[in-house]
Predict the structure.
Amino acid sequence: MPAKKRVQRFKGSSNLRGPVILVLILLTARAWLPASQSGKDSTDGICLTCHNPIAVALQKKFMHGALEQGCLSCHLDCREITPTSNRHKVPAFYLKTDEPDLCFGCHTASDKDLSLVHSNQLFSEAKCSSCHEPHASNSAKRIPDFSHGPFGVRECEACHAAPMGGKVQLVAPNIEVLCNDCHLEIKTFIENAKSRHNIVSKDQSLIKSESSCVECHDAHATNQKYFLKKSELELCNRCHLNLTAGMKYVHDPVRLSCIFCHDAHASDIPNDLHAPIQELCLGCHGENADKIRYSREPFLLFEGRVQLLRDSFERLKPLRLDKNGKGHPTAGHPVYVPAGDNNAELNCLSCHDAHADASSPQLLKESKSFLCLRCHEG
């Protein structure tokens, strides 16, 4: 089409631009209206834009029936919680009401079959999501992926006695005793260890729940291995976030999980480490480095206490040490010297921070020149 005619055609359609723009504005606004006005699909799409873990969970086999009604069947519309609203009064996860009342909007607490399935326990006062996935699961009953032994085989009576006085009862005096009845080896290991994680110590000021065990572990089921309530990193950061807060450079293992280096319960090594500092660091940065980087299978360290999944540390840089264990940071330089009468122990932490640093990609504690002058004065 000649340029002149194209211009004329555009000018001739200028009277349509107003209605077209209005339609576009209405379509855009529609996506931000509450579900009652915009429909389930558009609202759920907006929710899942931010809540990617939920989008991933919805790929599992069995979906909660309530999702047929959309996210807002259970949750408040976050777009209606304005900055002037009192956010502190909003229920957790923006639920319309707390559990189990929310669940009993659809399920009947007095249902005899439901009570029988729950071994006549007080499920009507329980937190349903402590046993059931609220969105989706690979279990028909929407049980999370990892079930604690007794719960997994539906032996509720292994831990619970019949309810009394409207309260849940245990078959032991308290949760600590109950856990130790089955996990005696862990109890013994902790009691005999030279270094204990504070959370399993007898310092009750650190324990916010009824037992140190349930500070980290769920008694029923979760989507985390070891029946953890959250991921290893999330659990550790509840207390230890200050180790990396505001730091530009973070040691790769610290980004993934503290238990690559630390035992979650106890150890014979200070700071609950899996091995002495030098052995610990060289476990990854020594002769194993290339094996870890290129292994197609999980790589085991420290007698199997640590399992590195494939591709965990693709950026791992090996130290090319000689047969005498020397060669870093320069040829012939020792990386370890035991403490003596006139010298402190030299190890990796003499120069590097184990967790994070604000300015050094190598996590150096000081500039290289200052570090050298610590030992090589003059």
